[in-house]
Design goal:
The chain is of the alpha+beta class. 19% of the residues lie in helices and 56% in strands. The protein has one helix and seven strands; from the N terminus they run αβββββββ.
Amino acid sequence: MKRVRMLVVLGAIAVALPLGLSAAHATGGGSSANQVTIQERVDYDNVGTNLDVGLNVRCSGGSGSVIVNVTQSPPQTPYPVAAGSGPQFVVCDNKTHTVAVTLVGFGFDAGRAKATADLTTDLGGSTHAERWVTIVPV
């Protein structure tokens, strides 16, 4: 019963995640002054539920927020899909800042995963980044 419940939750995440990403993409309108880069290495805890993702963010407009999503599929994880998401506020002073985002998910394991980051500023600018990352245990 516990396994069935877990599969239902994972299935709901797998369906909802692409819909959320499509909505973020549709709002677009990115500014060339706004940039977000995802660092290649991602740390995870020994349970596989929390990931720490590093970003380099540059934006203007006072402040903004970034949302990071990570998904991992077999054979990297023993589950049908591992997924997690996390937000972070950022300073937008047209300087590049290193930003850490801790996201909560389920089923992550060491190996490759797909990460996306969506940055939105208070002035309405936005930008999107994605890359394959390597999850490593801490």
